[in-house]
Amino acid sequence: MIIHRGHRVVAALLLSVVLLTTACTPKAPGRFDQAQKESTQQSKGLAVAKTATQGSEFNKLFPKASDGYQGVYTQEKKGFANLKLKKGGKDIALLSISDTTGTPAAAKFSKSTKKIGGYPAIEVGKTQTAILVGKYQVKAISSNPSFTASDRADWLEKFNLNGLAKLK
After folding, report:
1. What distances in angstroms separate CA 163 from CA 96, 104, 115, 158, one per listed residue?
2. How far apart are CA 66 and CA 92, in angstroms?
3. What's the order of all strands across the beta sheet hosting 136-142?
4. Average pLDDT over residues 101-126
5. What span is annotated as the signal peptide, if there is one (predicted)?
6. CA R_g for the chain
7. Residue 4: its pLDDT value, please?
8. Is pLDDT at 40 greater than 70 in this prediction?
C-alpha cells in the first residue's frame, strides 16, 4: 500500500512539473500569425473617415433601372453603397459610390484627360470606369462582357451627379 502511494505521489509530481513547464513555455508562432499581424496593421490606415457620408445618402442618387435592366442594392455602409445591375436575370454590372475622404483614391484622377458628365474619368483595366465628383468616386464595373466601356460611361452619366456634387 505504501508503494502504491509512492507511485501516486511521484506521478502527481511529474504531472505537475510537465503542466507547469508547458504552460510557462512561450508559444511558437503559428503559420497564420504573421499574416494576421500584417492585415491588422494595414486596416488601421484604411479605415473609413469619421466624416465620411453615410451610404444611405447615396441610394437616392443611383440611376433608375430601365430598358429591361433591374437594380438590386447589395451593400450600404458608411462611405459606400453599391447596386448590382441585372438584365434577363444575369449580373451585368456593379455600380457604386464611395466617399474618398481619408483615402488616396482621388489622386488617380489628377492626370485624367477624359471626362464623363463633366467630371474627370479613368478606365481601370478593361472592366472598370470611374469618375470623381468632388470627393466621391462613382464606378461602373462590368461583370459581363456584353456591358462595354460605352455602356459603363452611359450608366455613369445616369447617376444624379449634380445631387452628388451637392452632398457634404
Report:
1. 15, 23, 18, 12
2. 13
3. 69-77, 80-87, 90-99, 136-142, 128-133, 119-124, 114-116
4. 92
5. 1-23
6. 28
7. 67
8. no
Q: What angle do CA 27, 28, 33 make, to 5 degrees?
A: 105
Give the contacts of 76 (CB within 8 A, at least 6 positions apart).
Answer: 55, 56, 58, 59, 82
Q: What do you get for the CA distance between the two ends of the chain, in Å?
A: 85
Interior angle at CA 32, CA 27 and CA 33, nearest 5: 50
Mean pLDDT for the stretch of residues 48-60: 84
What residue has cell string 507547469?
A: 20
Give residue for cell 469619421: 50
- When mean pLDDT is compared across 16-20, 41-45, 142-146, the lowest value belongs to 41-45
